[in-house]
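Ex. 9. Protein: DUF1467 family protein.
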Amino acid sequence: MGWVSGLAIFFIIWWTVLFAVLPFGNRIPEGEDQLLGTQEGTPSNPRILRKAMITTIFAVIVFAAFYTVTEVIGFGFSDFPVFIPAPSA
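Predicted structure tokens for DUF1467 family protein:
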């Protein structure tokens, strides 16, 4: 795997992990704490920078596992069993 492919795969893993991390720790204000002009479900303090750092840590761990399985161990798509037979000519 080249560095461009690795960077692209890390980018995909990072975004996937971000969407998994975003809902954790959100507190929705009730009553008077809600700001005017915002929706009811808008979190009062989303802590985006903290979630981005947590996402980066988890993404590095997932990418390291992916790299180990694919590059060090050598497991790839061709190692999966084929359930659908190839069409005959």
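Check your answer against this statement. Residues 3-79 form one domain.
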